[in-house]
Amino acid sequence: MRVVKNINAIMDWLYQVIPKDLKVLVPISGGSDSALCFWLCSQALPTKAQGVFIGKLEHLRAHDWFWKTGSLMIESPLIPDLDPFQAEIMRWAHFQIVAQLSKRVLVGSRNRTEYTLGTYSLASRVATHLPIVGLWKSEVLEICE
Fold first, then answer.
1. Would you place residue 1 in the very low, low, confident or very high pLDDT band (cuts 50, 70, 90)?
2. Contact of 83 with 104, CB cutoff 8 Å
3. Burial of 85 (0-12, 13-18, 19+ CB in 10 A)
4. Whole-angstrom Cα distance, residue 116 to residue 138?
5. Beta-strand (E) ranges in 28-108?
């Protein structure tokens, strides 16, 4: 029952905080956090949610599920052969540019465990809305089941 309450509360929050004239851009990594954010946004804001994945479609885990769940775009990798730190910065810069050009709000998928431990990327701080920041990773996994 608690899981259902969390889901409904997050969807209500998304519906209330996203300005009516804007849409949302949800970066997708293929992991459970970004999948949950994408699903929540697609449910709460079905005509406003857009997922974005940087890379080759075959590298996106469960890509069929993402296509069935909502609107998704696949972007080519920006610059090959960057070290992981540089690649993360470029990835989030790209998300920010796409969000600005398409008049979308950038949604991040940081959870409470990452927030508490400080294990999120600093580049991801450009996301303006964090729907699952109040959920522990164990709760994310429970909801995803």
1. low
2. no
3. exposed
4. 14
5. 49-54, 71-75, 104-106
